[in-house]
Amino acid sequence: MDIFEKCRDFASTGFYESYGHRVYLRPLRPSAHPGEVLINGRSVVMAGSNDYLGLARDPRLAEAAVRATRLDGTGCSGSRTLCGTRDIHEQLEDACAAFLGREAAVLAPSGFQTNLLLAGLLGKDDVVLGDRHNHASLVDAVRLAGARYHRYRRDGVARAERLLSEAPPGAGRVIVTDGLFSMEGDLCDLPAITALADRCRARVVVDSAHDLGLLGATGRGVPEHFGLEDRVDLVTATFSKSLGSAGGVLAGPAEVINFVRCRARATVFTAGMAPSVAAAALAALDIVRTEPERRTRALEVAERMHNGLRALGYDTGNSVSAIIPIPIGDKVRCLELWQRLLDAGVYVNPVIAPGRPEGQEMLRISFTPVHSDAQLERALEAFAAAGRATGVIPRTPPGSFTPVRIARPPALAQETARPRSAAVPVSTATVR
Ligand SMILES: Cc1ncc(COP(=O)(O)O)c(C=O)c1O
């Protein structure tokens, strides 16, 4: 059998197009309006990125990247291990370790590769427990290592105890989880995970790809949000989301990080991060540290949009974050709603197969602190019209809805919290 055969079959599946819509690899160009992108020459509100703090187009990051390029060139021309490491790499590693309150940190050229570093730590006899919705890169790290992988359901952490306790003597035990889940926008049950890890003497690894910079009192992510940083052994994160750059970091005890740095194939056999990319991430980290108001605004915007959508009759699932899921459960309707939103000037993400099983299609939406109040209102108007036209929401808004309480740091939460179960009247300010 020719290995190219499947490619010919694939060409006829119309991957880019679905029901006549150009869904994947949509060409985007920069817009003159912050918070917007050009699609087919038209400026539309960008509500489908992971740029949670709106830093990807911040001029300070661009400046840092240009300066680093002038100083250090455009690429590293090889592995840091063999071809040498640059000051900017070490500065970023030190800054990440200090920010995350860990002894040491090691970089990788992408968030995906950062998680593959874990393969350097795991052996084939080790037993790894992971949430069933963990990111593909965490699953691939376990596969690469040949370790045994058991998946648990988000609400079934305690029931997973048997799987860990049955690990053969001598086997390493690890629980690995996304901090904030990328599609549903809900949090891992870190208190249950760390309690289980204590009982089973397992190590805990949290991937803070979506929560770094956004959650926790100082933006250190989900472990900080839960006040459980000292119970998490390793943190991985990417710079491609809240930090507006690319690359990632694994942080933890110095001896572990040193071992990984020297042994993990995903760093030893790959070129170091481009200096510009590392410098942009370093500049972003500094902004995260010094401008907490961005995080506050990001969470305010998220809460406002969750509740604005709920007031219209949309379901936003169990998300407590800037990721707003809208379950649709039907591919044709999902794409119709998506296209109508785009026609009305709002770009969101349609999540259909292969990203989502049939019958669980959804839209994934996120706004940033860069979006103006006028853009947010425009987006809600588009959602009102498109949702009604497609029958996803009722023609008349519900009389009340259950508000979302965003995962804020405790001090902020006390100021803004309402009980999650309490219904609030629909505000005419956000419903047309
Ligand atoms: C939870 C999680 N981990 C890791 C990654 C990989 O990060 P990157 O895209 O920076 O390679 C992603 C990306 O979507 C992710 O959602």
Describe the protein.
The protein is 38% helix and 16% strand. By secondary structure, the protein is of the alpha/beta class. The chain folds into two domains: 14-46 and 292-425, Aspartate Aminotransferase, domain 1; 59-290, 3-Layer(aba) Sandwich (Aspartate Aminotransferase, domain 2), CATH 3.40.640.10. A seven-stranded mixed beta sheet has the order 6-12-11-10-9-7-8, with helices on both faces. A four-stranded mixed beta sheet has the order 3-4-5-14. Strands 13-16-15 form a three-stranded antiparallel beta sheet. Bound molecules: pyridoxal-5'-phosphate (PLP). Pyridoxal-5'-phosphate (PLP) binds next to helix 5. Pyridoxal-5'-phosphate (PLP) binds at residues 110-112, 115, 135, 137, 178, 182, 207, 209-210, 238, 240, 248.
| Unreliable residue runs | 416-432
Radius of gyration: 22 Å
CATH class descriptor name of the largest domain: Alpha Beta
| Oligomeric status | single chain
SS-based class? alpha/beta
Q: Quick one: biggest sheet?
A: 7 strands, mixed
Instruction: Work out the helix count.
Output: 16
Tell me the name of the CATH homologous superfamily of the largest domain: Type I PLP-dependent aspartate aminotransferase-like (Major domain)
* Level-2 CATH architecture of the largest domain: 3-Layer(aba) Sandwich
Lateral arrangement of strands in the main beta sheet: 6-12-11-10-9-7-8
Identify every distinct bound molecule in the structure, by name, code or SMILES. Answer: pyridoxal-5'-phosphate
What portion of residues belong to β-strands? 15-25%
